[in-house]
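Can't paste images in this forum, so I'm doing it all in text. The chain is below; anyone willing to post the predicted C-alpha cells underneath?
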Amino acid sequence: MFDDAARRPPLVRIRRLPHGEGLELPSYETKGAAGCDLRAALAEGETLVLKPGETALAPTGLSMALPEGWEAQVRPRSGLAAKHGVTVLNAPGTIDADYRGEVKVILVNHGPEAFVIRRGERIAQMVIAPVWQAQFEEVGALDDTARGEGGFGSTGR
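Text version of the structure:
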C-alpha cells in the first residue's frame, strides 16, 4: 500500500486547470477518511441543473499524474445519493496512472426533483488505490469449486 522505502502514501501531482482556479484541491475531510472530495469547476455564477433521469459530465478543473501501479477511483458521495438521488453513474470510475486529461465526473439524478450544482460544490469522492496488471493464460478447463458456475443470486437472497 505504501512506498516501501519511505512508508508513506504515493505522491499524486495535481495540475489545476484555468477553470479550477480558486477552488480547493481534493482534500480528506477527516483523519480516517478513505476518499477525498472532488468539487465542481463551473464558471462563477454558472449552475449545472440535473433534471430527474438526466446525466451530466461535471468538470473538476484538475488533471493529475498518479504513480505507476496506482489508480484513482471516482465514487459517489453518500449524502448526495441518500438525500437527493444524485450519484456517479459509472461508479467507481477509474482514472489510470497514464491519463493526463481533466478529471470529470459522470453524474446521474435518480431523484424525483431537479438538482442544482454550483461552483465549488463537492460532487464526488476520489480514492487512491494500488492496482496490479494481471497476467493472463488461456487454458482448456478451470479447476472445480463448490460454487461452480453459480452466479447472479445463486448463493441466496
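The mean pLDDT is 93. The first strand starts at residue 13 and ends at 16.
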